[in-house]
Amino acid sequence: MKLLGISFCLFFSTGILHAADNRLNLVLIIADDMAWDDCGIYGNSNIRTPSIDRIGREGMRFDRAFLTSSSCSPSRASIITGLYPHNTDAEQLHWPLPAKHVTFVEKLKASGYWTASVGKWHLGTDMKERFDLVKEADISGFQLPTGKAAQAGRFIQKGTGDEKSGCTAWVPTLQDRPKDKPFFLWLAAIDPHRGYDENIIEEPTLPEEVIVPPYFPDTLEVRKDLALYYDEIIRLDKYVGLVLDELDAQKVAQNTLVLFISDNGRPFPRDKTTLFDSGIRTPWLVRWPKIVRAGSVNQDLVSSIDIAPTFLELAGLKASSSFAGTSFLPMLGKTPRAVRPYVFAEKNWHDLEDRSRAVRSKRYKYIRNFYDDLPLTPPADALRSPTFRKMQALRDEGKLNTAQMACFMKPRSQEELYDLQSDPFEMKNLATDPDHAETLKRLRFALEQWQSQTMDLPPKVRTPDEFDRETGIPTPARIRPRPSKADMQKNLGF
Question: How many whole angstroms separate alpha carbon 411 and alpha carbon 399?
Answer without folding.
Answer: 20
